Amino acid sequence: MKQQYKRQWLLVTIVILLMQGCGKNFLELKPNQQQKVPTTIADFRAILDNATGYINPVNNRSSHTLGIIGADEYEIPPAVYGTFPVGLTFDYQKNAYGWNERVYQGGEGGIVIPTDFDMGYQRVLLANLVLEGLGNIKPNVAEEEQWNDTKGTALFHRAWNYYCLLQLYAPVYNTVTASSDLGMPLRLESDPTARVPRASVEDCYQFLIKDLKEAVSLLPDRTVVKFRPTKQAVWALLARVYLQLEDYDAAAEHATNCMNVGRELLDYNNRTVHTYPFPIYGTENTEVIFVMTAYDALAYTGEYLAIPVDIYRSYDDADLRKTLFFEQDNNSNIRYRGSYYGSSLLFTGLALDEVYLTRAESNVRLGNLTEALADLNLLLRNRYRKDAFVNLTIQNEDELLSRILKERKKQLLLRGIRWEDLRRLNKNPKTATMLKRNIAGRGVELQPNSLRYVWPFPEEAITVGGYPQNPR
């Protein structure tokens, strides 16, 4: 076992030395000659199994930091704003909290000040490295299953990270402008020095969908190791992607495919109020499909930063989430403890509760109110006290959609999903939201469809890559 972890560390380290920072610094680093170059299927599997390591973890530090900071799910009490470790850690995070015109100051990136951009592209380049390596291996019959699983995993991670990066650094998908809107640079090889232009938003989505459709043919249906993707995870992610594209038929179809593999919702009546009421690491949580967590420092969002009172009050007293998700501190601030990772780390992976809500929303938008109501009632029946819940009988389409969207905000709290929901829902005035904050006595607002819903690229990426910057 020690040799296995040693090998993983050496393999991952050589890759990180090649790509650290996605800027000038990582281009100048040279690998140690004694480090092993990955050549076998097991080597490439080990790279992708670096799930929770501190340096370049594959399942940790997901590209959700700016989205979580920018959304409307928490607030920083004025007394702790700008303090460490209680407040936001880095200057760019403080700038993001105020939706400032300038977010990055220069010098961000790498291990010291990690950014969503860096972490996302490090994982993309890792996936490309694995895909290139596997392309040089012709597996025999005994190796074929492992080769397929490893390739499918790499394709999933590449698609997942491009999707997350698009939610932060590219405009929301618009059928009219997607072919001309600037998306992300589509890196298709592991060479971090290659100059790659920004692709269109349309091309980015079509590329990641292609990756996911190939991955689903290679991966197993399910796995006991929830840090690894499966067919079920691919279908869950495709449902999320198509919801973003407003292709509700496809979103409902992929949500159904996902649920047909397994649809075991947790009954919150059986959960105990505890410091962290859900199973540690999410591995024993029947709803969790794929484990991913946000940047470590955002754990303080759960432990120290406050949940807005209006969010807390949106949960009925009979709603078990009110006691399982939250606790009140000595200063009467509401703290979040409901992460599906079962700790202070925020869960940003894929889970069945989201899939139920995605299918419900897709069906109501397609006019299938009976099906939408059935999914919503099944979810809520497992969230409310059994002696208090009565099935909803909403027959009005707008009213049912409003309730489903309300439950998305309540159930998927602090998972990194709210920011992308705000962006897509702002396109319709009926579901648009004005965000407001008080920062040290100064009121700030984020208008629906503001340019500031698209975060700027880090300064180093602009300098080294020569990319056009996002307007703010």
From TrEMBL:
Keyword Isomerase: no
Lineage top rank: taxon: Bacteria
UniProt key word Membrane: yes
SusD-like N-terminal domain ranges (all copies): 26-243
Pfam family, one: SusD-like_3
Principal location listed in the UniProt entry: membrane
Coiled coil, from the record: none
Family matches, as Gene3D superfamilies: 1.25.40.390
RagB/SusD domain mapped to chain residues: 354-449
Compartment(s): Cell outer membrane
Keyword tags: Cell outer membrane, Membrane, Signal
Family: Belongs to the SusD family.
Protein name: RagB/SusD family nutrient uptake outer membrane protein
Taxonomic lineage from the root: Bacteria, Pseudomonadati, Bacteroidota, Sphingobacteriia, Sphingobacteriales
